[in-house]
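Researcher: Go.
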Amino acid sequence: MNINNIDKLNLELRKINNHLSAKEIDEDGLSLSPSDGFLQVKDRHKGEVEVFFDDSRVLTMHGVEDTPVIDLDVTIFDKQNGKLLIDILTICNEYLPESGD
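Model: Structure:
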């Protein structure tokens, strides 16, 4: 999967909250991220896009069997952060390629 303009995506995310950022993965590998006092291991693939709030990954945009998807890393959130998540999903959905693109 490939996002055409990662810089534009970053600008739009920062408009809703300056703690948000997106990063395109440039090589296959593993990542470690903190999760409830443990380290979470995640397989990463070139072309995936991860969205972060500060250092915490919120979601990953990638392909599943040639279908572009948004994979949430956040499963519990309060009302205020729920609104933020809706805004993030709305923006990221605009950058998600159509199936087969």
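Model: The CA atoms of residues 78 and 84 lie 10 Å apart.
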